[in-house]
C-alpha cells in the first residue's frame, strides 16, 4: 500500500488517501484559478502600462477612446489588431516572459505584459 503524505493540519491518525486527495484538489483549485485583468486604453495610454499575470490568466484590453487602437507585442507574440472605440479584446497568455507591446497606430503608446 502506498503511503501518502498529508497536510499537517489534518489529524495525523485520521488521514486517509481520500482526505489527502480532496485537500490537494482544493489547494490546486485555489492556486490555479485563472484571473481576469483589465487594461484600459484611454487618452492614448495603456493603464496600467505594466501588468504581471500568470499563464492561463485572461487579460482584457478595453478601448475607452473614440478611435481604434491595437495591443501588439513587439515580438508579435500577441496582436489584437484594431480594437474599435468602446470595444475590447481579450488574450490568455500561454508562454512565460516579458512582452513589451504597443499600438501599431500610435507609436508613442507603450506597455509591457509579464507572464509568469
Ligand atoms: Cu493607438
From TrEMBL:
Signal peptide per UniProt: 1-32
Domain EfeO-type cupredoxin-like: 17-115
Location(s), subcellular: Periplasm
Main location class: periplasm
Coiled coil feature spans: none
Keywords: Signal
Residue spans crossing the bilayer: none
InterPro entries associated with the record: Amicyanin (IPR035668), Cupredoxin (IPR008972), EfeO_Cupredoxin (IPR028096), ET_Amicyanin (IPR052721)
CDD domains documented for this protein: Amicyanin
Origin superkingdom: Bacteria
Protein name as annotated: Cupredoxin family copper-binding protein
Amino acid at each position: 500500500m502506498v503511503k501518502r503524505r498529508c497536510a499537517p493540519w489534518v489529524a495525523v491518525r485520521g488521514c486517509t488517501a481520500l482526505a489527502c486527495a480532496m485537500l490537494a484538489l482544493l489547494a490546486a483549485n485555489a492556486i490555479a484559478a485563472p484571473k481576469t485583468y483589465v487594461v484600459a486604453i484611454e487618452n492614448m495610454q495603456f493603464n496600467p502600462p505594466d501588468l504581471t499575470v500568470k499563464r492561463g490568466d485572461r487579460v482584457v484590453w478595453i478601448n475607452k477612446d473614440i478611435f481604434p487602437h491595437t495591443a501588439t507585442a513587439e515580438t508579435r507574440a500577441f496582436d489584437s489588431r484594431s480594437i474599435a472605440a468602446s470595444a475590447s479584446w481579450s488574450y490568455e497568455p500561454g508562454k512565460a516572459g516579458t512582452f513589451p507591446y504597443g499600438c501599431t497606430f500610435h507609436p508613442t503608446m507603450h506597455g509591457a505584459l509579464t507572464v509568469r
